[in-house]
């Protein structure tokens, strides 16, 4: 207390000056309209700026949660669409109607994962995600994004998985042209990371630029009708009976953040059944 009194005693002139300065400023802004308005507007401006910055920081910090919520919602929508597609009735034959088995309609399970590493500039590109065997993932499972096909799992650890990207020179996806259901194969030629080739489509089939290319029904790992890309060019290979089709990928791999891993719960059953064909002796 004594030291405080001593300090005030030593600095009394400065303290008195500061008090008088504050008092004079208060009188100046209180009884003069223009300075008062300027001060009010300036204070409001900086307060609004501070509030905007604060809101931006809060919004940025919430982006991860928003992305997680959107990914979970997309996962739910994919599962719902898969069930609805499987339950659709195809072109009727006479009076026969078709309804998919409930297990078949719900055979695809989706798991959301975050991309932790990827490449697009190599001849054979891979993607790493933050889910593994602990999350029920296994090699061979298909992987898609919210925009289209991504690839399939090559290997898994407990908490991570390695994906063979569709931008891999040895990876092929069974595909179809949406407008005419013509079946073919999609494969990357190792050049442009946004363009793949579709092969084995007869030159006598009508394929147009901007046609949608989707996964076919002949897939173990992907549901049918998942978008792969859009036809960007149609030509003819020399001395061939097939179209030379260039497809612009629907997925931009350079900005890929979240993916959905597809578990076909009936894949083993289907493969086991079809493998019996090779055991039939002539």
Q: Decide which structural class fits the backbone.
A: alpha+beta
Largest sheet data: 6 strands, antiparallel, barrel
For the biggest β-sheet, the strand order reads 1-2-5-4-3-12
Measured as a percent range, the helix fraction is: 25-40%
Order of helices and strands: HHHHEEEEEEEEEEEEH
Helical run tally: 5
List the uncertain runs.
Answer: 89-94, 96-100
Question: Please, what is the average pLDDT?
Answer: 78
Shape: elongated
Account of the 3D structure:
- With 282 residues, this protein is an alpha+beta fold.
- The protein has 5 helices and 12 strands.
- It has helices at 2-10, 12-30, 33-87, 102-105, 267-275, and strands at residues 108-118, 124-129, 142-144, 149-156, 161-168, 172-177, 183-187, 195-199, 212-215, 227-236, 243-249, 258-264.
- A 6-stranded antiparallel β-barrel has the order 1-2-5-4-3-12.
- A hairpin with a 4-residue loop joins strand 4 and strand 5 (161-168).
- The longest helix is centred in the N-terminal third of the chain and has 55 residues, at 33-87.
């Amino acid at each position: 207390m004594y030291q405080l009194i001593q300090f005030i005693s030593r600095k009394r002139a400065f303290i008195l000056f500061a008090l008088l300065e504050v008092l004079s400023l208060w009188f100046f802004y209180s009884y003069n309209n223009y300075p008062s308005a300027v001060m009010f507007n300036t204070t409001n401006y900086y307060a609004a700026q501070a509030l905007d910055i604060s809101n931006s920081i809060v919004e940025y910090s919430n982006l991860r949660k928003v992305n997680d919520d959107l990914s979970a919602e997309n996962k739910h929508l994919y599962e719902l669409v898969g069930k609805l597609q499987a339950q659709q009735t195809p072109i009727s034959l006479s009076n026969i109607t078709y309804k998919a088995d409930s297990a078949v309609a719900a055979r695809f399970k989706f798991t959301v994962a975050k991309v932790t590493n990827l490449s697009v500039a190599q001849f054979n590109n891979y993607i790493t995600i933050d889910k593994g065997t602990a999350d029920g993932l296994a090699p061979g499972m298909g992987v898609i994004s919210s925009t289209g096909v991504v690839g399939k799992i090559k290997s898994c650890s407990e908490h991570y998985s390695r994906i063979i990207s569709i931008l891999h020179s040895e990876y092929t996806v069974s595909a179809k042209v949406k407008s005419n259901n013509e079946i073919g194969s999609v494969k990357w030629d190792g050049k442009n990371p946004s363009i793949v080739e579709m092969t084995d489509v007869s030159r006598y089939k009508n394929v147009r630029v901007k046609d949608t290319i989707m996964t076919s029904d002949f897939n173990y790992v992907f549901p049918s009708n998942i978008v792969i890309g859009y036809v960007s060019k149609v030509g003819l290979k020399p001395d061939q009976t097939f179209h030379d089709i260039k497809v612009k990928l629907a997925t931009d791999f350079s900005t890929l953040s979240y993916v959905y891993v597809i578990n076909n719960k009936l894949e083993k059953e289907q493969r086991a059944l079809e493998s019996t064909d090779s055991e039939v002796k002539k």
